Amino acid sequence: MVAARITVNGKEAPISPAPPHATVLDYLRERGLTGTKEGCAEGECGACSVLVARPGVNKPTDWVAVNACLVPVAALDGQEIVTSEGLATVGEPGTPATLHPVQEEMAARGGSQCGYCTPGFICSMAAEYYRPDRCASACSDSGSVCGSEASPQAASPASESTDAEHGPNGFDLHALSGNLCRCTGYRPIRDAAFAVGTPAAEDPLAQRREQSPPAPVATEYAQDDRTFLRKDTLAETLRVLRERPGAVVVAGSTDWGVEVNIRARRADCVVAIDRLPELRELRVESDHIEIGAALTLTEIERRLDGDVPLLAELFPQFASRLIRNGATLGGNLGTGSPIGDSPPVLLALEASVVLADADGERVVPLADYFTGYRQSVRRPGELIRAVRVPLPLSPVTGFHKIAKRRFDDISSVAVAFALDVEDGIVRKARIGLGGVAATPIRSLATEAALEGKPWTAKTAEAAAGVLRAEGTPMNDHRASAGYRSAMLGQSLLKLYAHTTEAVPS
Question: pTM score, two decimals?
Answer without folding.
Answer: 0.93
